[in-house]
Every structure is written in structure tokens, then in C-alpha cells.
Design brief:
The complex is a heterodimer of chains A (233) and B (281). By secondary structure, chain A is mainly α. The radius of gyration of chain A is 22 Å and the shape is flat. Chain A is built from 9 helices and no strands. Helices cover 80% and strands 0% of the residues of chain A. Chain A has one domain: MetI-like (MetI-like fold). Chain B is an alpha/beta fold and 281 residues long. Chain B has a domain of 70 residues. Chain B is 34% helix and 23% strand. In chain B, the strands form 2 sheets. Chain B has a 6-stranded mixed β-sheet with strand order 7-8-9-3-10-11, sandwiched between helices. In chain B, strands 2-1-4-5-6 form a 5-stranded antiparallel β-sheet. In chain B, helix 4 packs across helix 5. The radius of gyration of chain B is 19 Å and the shape is globular. The chains are: A mainly alpha (233), B alpha/beta (281). The interface between A and B is large, with 31 and 47 residues.
């Protein structure tokens, strides 16, 4: 099998890898945020549910969770296909890690911010959405960015259930052409080609925030609006 | 979007007629009790009673200052008045809404409605650091009372002009001095036109040379007849703008009266020793 022949397979597998990444990320960011909000909330039972969940999933290997979902659950009649099982494993595990990052971010916003919001007659939702979350987002950005890259790399574990992503594809190819060194180097390179720009993107965005680029943009927007309504010359 | 309307907004409520004793109070607390739980469990950690049955009734347009040593319960008391702090027992009522009555408090929407009528200015300003000054002031209007962004900005701009910050509308809090930040915070509080404004040591976090500009804004607000409750260590200022001074000591109102009575002829020995320490008037 000539090397040109496995490129289409790798391209297809790359798409699967990105699919797992996107689904796993979407799920874990959402579930992680919900868990984090549960943990900073005032109802103790809700807090405990979130804490127990986090500790359980944080301290269980993802590979085992994946086995339970894909090989274990069918024995009690719950069957997922590989795409769902893989994405679900990423979601439930990374939600636990992300919830801790988000919790720290939420708690990093000084309490006076909440109080100021309530004192001007904003609802709890409005306080969180407009005041707490934007600030918590900035505080969690760096750590969250690392997790995003981590999810992409961890999709390779899904090869154990034959997820048809990059590593699975590489295994299939080496089984046919006996060139593991070459194939795994290529696959490693593909992972790197996605992860490295992603890492840099996070760093770039962080630097941008620190430099106040976004602030300058909102200031310019505000000044234009003030001119529009004639509030400034 | 008319540009001209921006200049017409007055800060806070219009000047109200002199308070008559029979009128319904603007804000009232009765028999407030509050005890903080022990910091930790175990021996040597006792619950701390902070408020031991304080009552205060403030008429429309009245200016009341609460003074006292640190730890006397002043801040807790004023924080109970808009229910940022929940009392253990007592009654909190303002603008015809009973928001708290012996452990029963209004539901979420009622609480939001109640707080909209009772503004609060904090010692640490608590401006929103991710927003410009103008956005800080307009946020309560856009997200609280549903004004459009541009309408809210027009009102915010006129508020900021009123507190002397016409040139700082696009500044972020970290670019402003403490005095400027506190003036933005005052404008933000007035944005939703509360009937009563609570001031929790509004000048205590400021460098001495910045205190004056904030007091100037408070004076102006007082001149417009706003109902104000002020916790402060600025006794001279309290004497100047207040109709009534309340001296809080050990979680109880030790004495209250006009500034003249309280500062010149205090009857309670505890008031005497407190006032003489400051050597005011």
C-alpha cells in the first residue's frame, strides 16, 4: 500500500477527531458551567450533588468511563453508537475538570460585584449573566484553553472502541502496511498541527485581553453611540 | 433617538416637601435583630450579636446619619435596610413594600422591586470593572427596567455630567481615581431613580484629598430633597447635611436627635465619650 493511499483515510479520520472534540467540548463546557453554578449556589443539597459528581468523575480514568459507557451500559439495555459513547465519555469527564475551573472563576469575582448588582435592582439571572459570568470568564480563560487542547488530544483514547478517529485510522493503516513509525509520526503531526495553533490562539486571546484591546473596542463603540445620541460633541 | 432629551434628567427624586411626622415613612426598620454565627465550630467561638433590636423610621426627604464606633453594627444595620443582609428578626419596609417581616421575606421579584426603590452606595464603590463608566450607569436601566441601550446611555450621560464626569464616560473603573469611581457609583445608584439612597461609609475608602468631591455630590443630592441614610465617620459632614443623627453603640441605638442636640448636648455618657473623641464642634 503506497503512502498516497492512506491520506484520504487520514483526512476522514481527522474529521472524526474534530467531531468528537466539538461534541465533547460543547457538552463539557455546558455541563461544567451548570455544575460550577450548582457549587456556588446557596442550596446545600444541590451543592453536594455537584461536588459528589465532580469527585467521582475527576478520580476515575476516562478510559474506564469510556468502557463503562460503551461496553458496560449495553448490559442494562442502554446502547450508544461509537460517536455518542465517545463524546459522552469526554463530556462527563471534562465537565468535572471544567466545573472546578469555572467554580474558581466564579468565586474569584468579589462579592461586592454581586451586591452592587442586587442593590441596583437586578435579578439574580441578570446579575450572573451581565456581571459575574463575564468576569469569571476572563478569570478562567487560560485554564479553560488548556482543557480545550486537552480534549482534542484525548479523543485518541476513543480508538479503544474503534472510534474511527485519527488513532484508530492509524492502527488500521499500520496493520495493513507495517509502517508504524511513519504512520504514527504522521498522525502525531496532525494532532500537533491542530493543537499547537489552538494553544497559541488561547495565549493570543489572553494577551489581547490583558492589553485591553477589547476595552479599547468597547470604548470606541461607546463613544460612537454617545455621539449618535448627541450626548457628547 | 433625540439627543436633546439627555440634559433633562434630574438626579434622583425631585425635591420633596418638608417631612411631616404623620406621613408614611419612606423607609423603616423595626426591632431588627441580627447575630452572626461563630466563625468556626468549637470552644472559644461564640455567635456575635450585632443588632439588638434597632428601629429607625426615615421620612420622605429626610437625611439621617448613623454614626458609631467600628463594630457597633452601623454597616450591618444599613445593609439590612435593603436586605443585602437578612436580619434574624424584625421588619424592613420601604416605599410601601414590606420586604421582611420576622423571617418572612418577599419572593425574588418582590425583592428586586423593593431594592429598586432603595439604592445603595458602597464603601468600596463596587463598580463593574469590565464596563465603561457610562455602561456602569446604564446597566441597571437596560437590564433592570428594560430601557434600550441608547436611551439608557443618554440618561447615563446626563447623570455623569451631573456628578462632574462628562469627560470620563468612556473610562474604565481602573482608569479613574477613587473619588471619580465613587461618583460613578452614585450616578449608577441613581440611574433607576430610587426613592431612598443608603450610603455605607461612602468616603471611608478614599484618599483624604478626594473626600471633598464626593461629599459635594452628596450635598447636592441632599439639596434636591433625596431621602438619605448615611453611615459615616465624617461627623462634620453629618452635622451639616443631616436632619437627624443616630448614634449606634453595641448594636443598639444609644441616642438620636438633631445634630445640635447630639453633638453639643449629648445626654448619654457613651455618646459624650464618642463625640468628644472626635472633637467636633
Amino acid at each position: 500500500m503506497g503512502s498516497s493511499l492512506y491520506w484520504p483515510a487520514l483526512g476522514y479520520a481527522t474529521l472524526h477527531t474534530l467531531e468528537f472534540t466539538a461534541l465533547g467540548l460543547a457538552g463539557s463546557l455546558l455541563l461544567g458551567l451548570v455544575l460550577a453554578l450548582m457549587k456556588v449556589g446557596k442550596w446545600a443539597p444541590v451543592r453536594w450533588v455537584a461536588i459528589v459528581y465532580t469527585e467521582l468523575l475527576k478520580n476515575t480514568p476516562l478510559l474506564v468511563v469510556l468502557y463503562i459507557i460503551y461496553f458496560g451500559l449495553p448490559s442494562i439495555g442502554i446502547i450508544f453508537d461509537r460517536l455518542i459513547a465517545g463524546s459522552l465519555a469526554l463530556t462527563v469527564c471534562y465537565a468535572a475538570y471544567l466545573s472546578e475551573i469555572f467554580r474558581a472563576g466564579l468565586q474569584g469575582v468579589p462579592n461586592g460585584q454581586r451586591e452592587a448588582g442586587y442593590a441596583v435592582g437586578l435579578s439574580t439571572f441578570a446579575v450572573y449573566w451581565n456581571i459575574i459570568l463575564p468576569q469569571a470568564f476572563r478569570l478562567s480563560l487560560a485554564a479553560t484553553g488548556n482543557m480545550v487542547v486537552d480534549v482534542l488530544k484525548t479523543t485518541s483514547l476513543i480508538s479503544v472502541i474503534g472510534g474511527a478517529e485519527l488513532l484508530t485510522s492509524a492502527e488500521n493503516i499500520t496493520a495493513a502496511n507495517f509502517e508504524p513509525m511513519k504512520v504514527y509520526l504522521i498522525v502525531g503531526g496532525i494532532y500537533f498541527a491542530f493543537c499547537f495553533p489552538l494553544s497559541r490562539l488561547v495565549v493570543w486571546y489572553e494577551t489581547r485581553l490583558k492589553a485591553g484591546k477589547n476595552r479599547q473596542r468597547s470604548r470606541r463603540r461607546l463613544e460612537a453611540e454617545l455621539r449618535e445620541i448627541g450626548a457628547v460633541a | 433617538m433625540s439627543g436633546e432629551g439627555a440634559g433633562e434628567v434630574t438626579i434622583g427624586a425631585p425635591a420633596s416637601p418638608a417631612a411631616t411626622p404623620s406621613a408614611l415613612p419612606a423607609i423603616e426598620v423595626r426591632e431588627l435583630y441580627k447575630t452572626y454565627p461563630p466563625q468556626r465550630r468549637g470552644r472559644g467561638f461564640e455567635p456575635t450579636p450585632v443588632l439588638k433590636g434597632v428601629s429607625l423610621s426615615v421620612q420622605n426627604g429626610e437625611h439621617v446619619s448613623i454614626i458609631g464606633r467600628s463594630g457597633s453594627g452601623k454597616s450591618t444595620m444599613i445593609r439590612c435596610m435593603n436586605l443585602l443582609e437578612m436580619p434574624d428578626a424584625g421588619v424592613v419596609r420601604a416605599n410601601g413594600i414590606t420586604a421582611f417581616d420576622d423571617g418572612l421575606k418577599v419572593n425574588g421579584r418582590g425583592l428586586v422591586e423593593f431594592r429598586r426603590g432603595v439604592g445603595m452606595v458602597f464603601q468600596q464603590f463596587n463598580l463593574f470593572p469590565h464596563l465603561t463608566a457610562a455602561e456602569n450607569v446604564s446597566l441597571p436601566m437596560t437590564k433592570g427596567i428594560g430601557l434600550s441601550r441608547l436611551d439608557a446611555l443618554a440618561r447615563a450621560a446626563s447623570m455623569l455630567r451631573k456628578v462632574g464626569l462628562a469627560d470620563k464616560m468612556g473610562s474604565f473603573p481602573h482608569e479613574l481615581s477613587g473619588g471619580q469611581q465613587q461618583r460613578v457609583a452614585i450616578a449608577r445608584t441613581l440611574a433607576v431613580q430610587p426613592k431612598v439612597v443608603l450610603f455605607d461609609e461612602p468616603t471611608s475608602a478614599l484618599d483624604p484629598e478626594l473626600v471633598g468631591e464626593v461629599l459635594e455630590v452628596l450635598r447636592e443630592l441632599a439639596g434636591e430633597g433625596m431621602t438619605m441614610v448615611i453611615v459615616t465617620h465624617e461627623l462634620a459632614f453629618a452635622a451639616e447635611v443631616s436632619h437627624r443623627i443616630v448614634f449606634l453603640d453595641g448594636g443598639e441605638i444609644a441616642e438620636q436627635g438633631t445634630p445640635d442636640q447630639l453633638f453639643r448636648n449629648p445626654t448619654n455618657p457613651r455618646t459624650q465619650s464618642f463625640v468628644s473623641q472626635f472633637g467636633t464642634k
